[in-house]
């Protein structure tokens, strides 16, 4: 039986792993086994890695019309059935730097994320916290710590808008605290949104 495809979250993107079965305790992985999708969550991984992995899994499931079964695996507590998927399952001390640096948690920095589609994949990446970063053909997520804004460009695709909302909800769920998620259409920006951007 072929091994499942394993993707590693690296700075906001899913990167296919050449050696499936090797998991770093400071990272998160998406394990795609067809109608079964596993989220392997490293015990030392960061909030952003967890939320990006979960959001990616939801988007993959959506592309399969919700037929995939998504299981969350806590690193170090893998069931035997999961380990059996790999010829050589092992956990290492590897750790890739997360996007939400620890300093953000201390200083409560604002963050702006761009969500865009390329082909049949959705990518999300941090961009400069500036009005100049906003582009009409993409969707942006502004995190002001207490609130999460989803700014939807007038030329953004329906899929980008949908995926950005999924990401914002996952972002909210993974972080401690209660944030409001507010959808904003281009041209109807509230004052607090514009004031948060430079």
Overview of this structure, please?
By secondary structure, the protein is α/β, with parallel strands linked by helices. The protein has two domains: 5-92, Severin (3-Layer(aba) Sandwich), CATH 3.40.20.10; 102-196, 3-Layer(aba) Sandwich (Severin), CATH 3.40.20. The protein is 25% helix and 33% strand. The chain has five helices and twelve strands. The strands form three sheets. A five-stranded mixed sheet has the order 2-1-4-5-6, covered by helices on one side. Helix 1 (47-63) runs antiparallel to helix 4 (158-174). 31% of the residues are buried. The model is unreliable at 99-106 (pLDDT under 50).
Q: Based on helices, strands and strand pairing, what is the structural class?
A: alpha/beta
Task: Kindly report the name of the CATH homologous superfamily of the largest domain.
Answer: Severin
Largest sheet: 5 strands, mixed
Q: Calculate the mean pLDDT score and round it.
A: 81
Amino-to-carboxy terminus distance = 53 Å
Q: Into which percent range does the helicity of residues fall?
A: 25-40%
CATH architecture of the largest domain: 3-Layer(aba) Sandwich
Q: Unreliable segments (pLDDT under 50, ≥5 consecutive)?
A: 99-106
Overall domain count = 2
Instruction: Report strand %.
Output: 25-35%
Strand order within the widest beta sheet: 2-1-4-5-6
What string gives the helices and strands in order?
EEEEEHEHEHEEEEHEH
Backbone CA Rg: 17 Å
Number of strands: 12
Q: What global shape is seen?
A: elongated
- Topology-level CATH name of the largest domain: Severin
Total helices: the number is 5
- Determine and state the CATH class of the largest domain: Alpha Beta
